[in-house]
Structures are given as C-alpha cells and as structure tokens.
Design a protein that fits this description.
OB fold (Dihydrolipoamide Acetyltransferase, E2P); 2 domains; 20 strands; elongated; Rossmann fold
Length: 379
C-alpha cells in the first residue's frame, strides 16, 4: 500500500453537548478502499462529513496530502461525496447532471463533453446523455451520481451508504462495479456502511467503530478471523461468544470441558472470552439409544477426539436449510450453540461437538463496561 494521503489527528466533535468523536485518530493510505463500519450512531458519517468539509471538528486537524485542510471549504477540497439518496437534479438530463460541477469550474464545452462520454463509459451507461433521472432504475441513478463525482477527478471519493436504498441484487451488482471503478480509477475510496457483507466484500481495510471509538482496524480476513474483542466478533458475522477459563497456554476450559487451542499469553486460570464461528463447530452423530461404553458411542467420541481432546455432548434443537449450508442450534452444557454445516443433523439427534484448536479465538475479558469501547492504535 502507498503512502498516507489523509491523517485525522486528535479529532473531537460534539452535537448538542453530546460527544460523538473524542480524540479520534485515523490515517488513510493513497489508493486504499477503506470502509468505516459500525452501528448507527457510532460516528462514521460524522467522520465522512468532517473529511468532506461539511462539518468542522471542535478540536484536531485534518491533514490531506501533507496540507492542513481543517478550515478549507468543501468545494476547495480534492474530495467528492456520493450520498445514499443520489442527490441528482430531477429537472436536468443525465449529461447536465454530470456536467454540473465542471460548468461551475468554467471548463470548456469540448472538455465537458469528453468528460461526460468518459464517465458514462466508465459506469457502463453509454448513450444515456439525454435521459432524465426519473427514467432510470435505482442502480442506474447511483451510477450517474458516481459518474458526476468522478468527472471532477477527485483524489478521494467519499461514499455515505450509497447502496442502502437498492434491492439485494442491485446492491450486489454495484459492489462489484465499485471494486472495478476503484481499480480502474486508482483513487482512494472511503466508504461508510453498517452492512458487514458490503465491508467484507469490497474493502482493503475495515475500521470497525462503536460509540465513537475504533474497535479494530485490519483486512477483511483479519477482522473476521481474528476479532480483537467481543463487540467485533459479534458485529462481524455470526459467532458463539461465551466465557471461559484460560488454564494455561494453549489450553482453555469452556463450559467445564478443556479444549486445546493455539493462543498463549493470557496467563493461568484467568477468565477470558471465547469466540467460535458457527462454521467452525464440528458435529459427530451419536447413534440413538447408545451410551458410554457401547461401541458406537465410543467410536463417535474417538472421531471427535481426533480433532480436539475436548468435546461436549448435545442435542440438535433447531434446523433451517439455507441453501449453501444447514443452520442448526445445538443445546450443550446449558448453552445454545449456533452451527453451520453442509451436513444435516436432524432435530432431536444427539451429537458430540468440538472445534479445531486453530478455530478457537481467545480474547481478554473486559473488566468493566467502559473497557468495551477502547480505541485501538491504527496499524
């Protein structure tokens, strides 16, 4: 990844006496697709508005390409914003919408026409120059909004939940379009969403936020596979999150049963949080009416033990077919486990349940509620 392009330093912002961002720090690299991900009210849109020049921080600085732009007007910045509601001018043709910013900058008519053709080709809407916005689908309108932004040749494109108003199929199509555009244009994308799938699909880097604080920064793979706290694990995809005791390095007790794991450095006999993804839970059928000592029961136990010496015995209580996999709930040791598997285990069936040691994620347990929203240093 290239050098830093944007550096937000010690940003504080309040609205009506309520602090939304408190000493917030984040840097963004050139040509990066960075996504701000978090629940409503976590501060992600406020960050975008500060970057775009629509809000001014109470404290702190915004450095862009080595220059302080904290007090620079929005129309003077080399950034363009694409909003969720498109914000197209309904009384203007598509060509007039795209040309709007260029005409304000007093570009020549020849230059403007060249840019309109270039932008429409880039968003796969050639020949739409004379159409009106209300004749287009939602996905087409969003492409025009993007075309209008990119003709101004911004160094950074700010996208504030731009796909939120689209249906599922359009949203998925536009995700691939945005990835293609980012690669072809070679500009920095800063994307705001609360949709975890969007963030995982498109991003080079994800910034997970909660209560105005950064919870974790990393690649989609890092965020999903190595969550740094229970909030991130719970917010990004489905998870089984439960308390455990770290007996010693690489050995954790979960619901009274000891499991091998690969984590270390958590001390001895210390309480921890344990995260196990549903697809990482492995089930082994116990034949009906078989108990300890029977050949069938012991064979199922032995097959489970090959994956991990620790195992729990449970009963399947719920089953849904999801197309790609089965989603099941398994009651074991007083805990309802969420399990995803390509194999079907019937409701009422008895199972042994275990996990590969590499798929058991150990995290420090917060000592207080305040500790659940700590800011992590950027990587």
């Amino acid at each position: 990844m290239s050098n830093r392009l944007i550096d937000m330093q010690h940003i504080t912002k309040s609205f009506d006496g309520q602090t939304v961002l408190d000493d917030f720090n984040l840097y963004i690299r050139e040509n990066e697709f960075l996504t701000l991900l978090g629940p409503s009210g976590c501060g992600k849109t406020t960050i975008l508005r500060i970057l775009g020049g629509f809000e001014k921080p109470d404290k702190g600085r915004v450095i862009f390409d080595g220059k302080d732009i904290t007090d620079l007007a929005a129309n003077k910045r080399q950034l363009n914003t694409v909003f969720q509601k498109y914000a197209l001018f309904s009384h203007m043709t598509i060509a007039e919408n795209i040309a709007f910013g260029l005409k304000i900058r007093k570009k020549s008519e020849e230059y403007i026409q060249d840019k309109i053709r270039y932008a429409l080709k880039l968003v796969n809407l050639e020949g739409f120059e004379k159409r009106m916005p209300d004749s287009l689908s939602g996905g087409q309108q969003q492409r025009i909004a993007i075309a209008r932004a990119i003709v101004n040749e911004p160094k950074v494109l700010l996208l504030d939940e731009p796909l939120g108003a689209l249906d599922l199929k359009m949203r998925q199509d536009m995700q691939y379009e945005l990835i293609r555009l980012k690669n072809e244009l070679g500009i920095t994308f800063i994307y705001v969403t609360h949709d975890q799938e969007e963030a995982l699909t498109m991003s080079d880097t994800i910034v997970v936020m909660n209560q105005g604080y950064i919870q974790q920064i990393g690649t989609p793979e890092d965020i999903y596979n190595e969550p740094q706290n229970a909030f991130v694990a719970d917010f990004i995809g489905d998870s089984n999150i439960l308390g455990g005791i770290m007996i010693q390095d690489k050995l954790v007790e979960i619901l009274g049963m000891r499991f091998d794991c690969v984590d270390s450095g958590f001390g001895s006999n210390n309480p921890v949080d344990v995260v196990i993804r549903p697809e990482d839970v492995k089930l082994f059928s116990i034949p009906d009416n078989e108990g300890p000592g029977s050949a069938e029961y012991e064979d199922a136990a032995a097959r489970a033990a090959k994956l991990n010496p620790g195992r729990l015995e449970g009963v399947v209580t719920h089953l849904i077919f999801k197309g790609v996999h089965y989603e099941m709930t398994v009651e074991a040791a007083g805990f309802e486990w969420l399990v995803h598997s390509t194999r079907m285990f019937p409701v009422g069936g008895r199972v042994f349940m275990t996990m590969d040691p590499f798929n058991i994620q150990i995290m420090n347990k917060p000592e207080s509620d305040d500790e659940k929203a700590l800011e992590f240093e950027t990587i």
